[in-house]
Amino acid sequence: MPLGNSGIGPGLDGSDPARQLQEYVRRGASFSGNESHVVFSNEEGSFKNVSSITGLDSKDDGRSVCFTDWDLDGDLDVWIGNRSGPQIRFFQNSNPSDGQGINIRLSGKSCNRDAIGARVILKARGNLPQTRTVTAGSGFLAQSSKTLHFGLAKEDIIEEIEILWPGNKAQNISNIVPGNYHIEQGSEPVKLKLRSKEITKDPNPLQETFNDRTFLSQRLPLTAFFERPQEAKDKPLLICLTVEDCKVCVAQKKEWKLSPPADVHLQLISESDLAISDPEKLRIIQLTYDHFFDVSAREIPTPLSFLIDQKNRLCAIYRGRIDQDLLLEDCINIGIKGYQLRSRSVPFSGSWASKQISSARPLNFVEDLLDAGLLDPAANYINKELNSLKEDELFPMLLKRLETLKSDRADP
């Protein structure tokens, strides 16, 4: 039954493997079963597993790897991209070695600017030549540096470097020592200088506070779950979920106590209190967050805030501290439509490839409610949003699924 978010039907025994796999991934699980990364060292034609001693044997769900001499110290460092967090890791090569290296960055003039396709042959006295080629891709979801790296022994002397530029134009360079160079086609090498070899900043520092805001171009109606107080009848509603031991939550509440947000009705909700008084509503908040960020059952970052307009549609989601000026700006622009709304929903300017402006599909949200076993909230949502749901061609199938689930729940 091609219904809702999965678009794939149940199996012969009533199971739905595709939906189960999708849910598995949304929960942050790994396709590879959290297998450790593996590194092999080429020892004269035989490969040895050196994963543990390199420090690269993490259990991240790795997807891509790229190599570059990031600190220009003559050896290659490693960047690894993961499907799950941390989404990127940097491994600095601090292995003690008597070796040295040369890095060559090429720029074309008569050929392409990045010198894609250029081949460099390094000839060191008493050794076989080493060859490197500038490529535009080096693996799945990865691109290693286009700077070519050659590893050398301490005593190696470079006799000549031959560059075969695209178009079969050759360039020979002699009298060059290990180091870091930029070579423009037809010109002599220019040394590259590094301000500092010390990496003084953690690539992914742990922050005490954070802020993140998503201004939604697809407005999901939430009348069924969030009652609008009488005093918020003519203004946007800001619902903020907080946790007692959250430093950002404490700071945000203190800020709002001194300077309440303007032109919006604020509702503060304690997660611990809601877990006791209305656990179902807490699940709905979690599911609403999951729905928009395409995750499932992961810990909610707090404070988590929903900005709801006068028509009870979810218009913005804030994770972490809310900037007062940005909130005021969002409230002013809460009623914009069409291209203006779509442009404001992205964090950068640009040209759209499509002129079509999509809108929220409440049916998908109801599907999420049913997947979570929230049958009564799903039925309540259908009653509240019946007019918009009836416009969806799959609405009759949604009703049939709801009836089936209710029947299954009623059976002993």
Helix-strand category: alpha+beta
* Counted beta strands: 18
Query: What would the CATH topology of the domain at 211-347 and 356-360 be?
Result: Glutaredoxin
Which CATH class of the domain at 211-347 and 356-360?
Alpha Beta
Biggest β-sheet strands, sense, barrel? 5 strands, mixed
Order of helices and strands: HEEHEEEEEEEEEEEEEHEHHEEHHHHHH
Estimate the helix proportion, in percent. Answer: 25-40%
Set out the fold topology.
Elements: H1 17-26, E1 40-43, E2 46-49, H2 51-54, E3 62-68, E4 77-82, E5 88-91, E6 100-107, E7 119-124, E8 130-133, E9 148-152, E10 158-165, E11 169-173, E12 180-184, E13 190-191, E14 211-221, E15 237-242, H3 247-258, E16 265-270, H4 271-277, H5 279-293, E17 304-308, E18 313-320, H6 324-332, H7 338-344, H8 362-371, H9 375-384, H10 386-389, H11 395-410
Parallel strand pairs: 6-12, 15-16
Antiparallel strand pairs: 1-2, 3-4, 4-5, 6-9, 7-8, 7-10, 10-11, 12-13, 14-18, 15-17, 17-18
Helix pairs in contact: 4-5, 8-9, 8-11
Please tell me about this protein's structure.
With 412 residues, the protein is an alpha+beta fold. Among the domains are: 96-191, Immunoglobulin-like (Sandwich); 211-347 and 356-360, Glutaredoxin (3-Layer(aba) Sandwich). Helices cover 25% and strands 25% of the residues. The protein is built from eleven helices and 18 strands. The chain has helices at 17-26, 51-54, 247-258, 271-277, 279-293, 324-332, 338-344, 362-371, 375-384, 386-389, 395-410, and strands at residues 40-43, 46-49, 62-68, 77-82, 88-91, 100-107, 119-124, 130-133, 148-152, 158-165, 169-173, 180-184, 190-191, 211-221, 237-242, 265-270, 304-308, 313-320. The strands form five sheets. The protein has a five-stranded mixed β-sheet with strand order 14-18-17-15-16. Helix 4 (271-277) packs across helix 5, helix 8 runs antiparallel to helix 9 and helix 8 (362-371) packs parallel to helix 11. The longest helix is centred in the last third of the chain and has 16 residues, at 395-410. It is elongated. It starts with 16 loop residues before the first helix and ends with a helix. The model is unreliable at 1-13 (pLDDT under 50).
